[in-house]
Amino acid sequence: LPEDVLVELLSLLPAQDLICTCRLVSTQWRYVVDLTTLWKRKCQREGFYIQNLDRSISDWKVFYMLCNLKRNLIKNPCAEENFQHWKLDDNDGDKWKIEDMPGPHGKEMPDPKVHKYFVTSYGPCFKSQLITLQKEGYWNQLMDEKRPEIVVKDWYAARFDCGCRYELRVRLLSEDYIVLDDFHPEPVVIEQWNDAMWREISHTFQNYPAGVRYIWFQHGGQDTQFWAGWYGIRVTNSSITIGP
């Protein structure tokens, strides 16, 4: 088959089949599977191709893989599955609770698809997730050589009638759980009689050291007036994405 026809046909196949099977068929097929044009064609087919990025992409195969893998790595970010996938590191006061939007003295999220949130109490309440990158499809060589951007986002809000405190910490960890990079901004303290608006916090990890194998995400806080019940910070719609 002519090379252009083979590119068109092979670009219809899943990436894993191309790399694990098709490359082994013959010298010609291995050559075609490694062509930039094949991976660019796959990006075009699946809606990942953006013309003004054309010259800035050095490896279309890796670009395709990253686009194909891209999703929120935080599981159960909006409390739809109770506390499943979350580790409750601190659960003091009247403990963590899940409430429906907008909640008492609260406001709706900008994203209408978010219907629930986690809420803290008068004692410290923190919860976390540990993401194993290899399990999510991000192989070691990719993380060490390409070091794609890691984007962290979280949403938090207070009740109108009570002050509270919010904290976020995200760590990039090695295979031995050594901290290679860390995002830990100053705690946010919200006063009583606030606007109860939902706010987003965001951070992008770039140019981090080689060796990242895990991402550890932790957030939480408490109310600042020590009222019994659930008057503390509210959190939802957390996300970690790895971009091309």
Give an overview of the whole structure.
This protein has 244 residues and is α+β, with helices and mostly antiparallel strands. The chain has two domains: 3-67, Monooxygenase (Up-down Bundle); 87-243, Galactose-binding domain-like (Jelly Rolls). The protein is built from six helices and eleven strands. The strands form two sheets. Strands 1, 4, 6, 7, 8 and 10 form a six-stranded antiparallel β-sheet that branches. Strands 2-3-11-5-9 form a five-stranded antiparallel β-sheet, with no helix packed on it. The mean pLDDT is 94.
Structural features:
Jelly Rolls, 11 strands, Monooxygenase, 6-stranded antiparallel sheet, 244 residues, single chain, elongated, 5-stranded antiparallel sheet
Helix-strand blueprint:
Layout: H1 3-10, H2 15-20, H3 27-33, H4 36-45, H5 60-69, E1 87-91, E2 97-100, E3 116-119, E4 125-132, H6 140-146, E5 150-157, E6 164-173, E7 179-183, E8 188-190, E9 199-205, E10 214-223, E11 234-242
Antiparallel strand pairs: 1-4, 2-3, 3-11, 4-10, 5-9, 5-11, 6-7, 6-8, 6-10
Helix pairs in contact: 4-5
CATH class of the largest domain: Mainly Beta
CATH architecture of the largest domain: Sandwich
Overall average residue pLDDT: 94
Tell me the major beta sheet: 6 strands, antiparallel
Q: Please state roughly what percent of the residues sit in beta strands, choosing from under 5%, 5-15%, 15-25%, 25-35%, 35-45% or over 45%.
A: 25-35%
Question: In total, how many beta strands?
Answer: 11
Radius of gyration: 22 Å
Q: Please count the helical segments.
A: 6
Structural class: alpha+beta
Number of domains: 2
- Silhouette: elongated
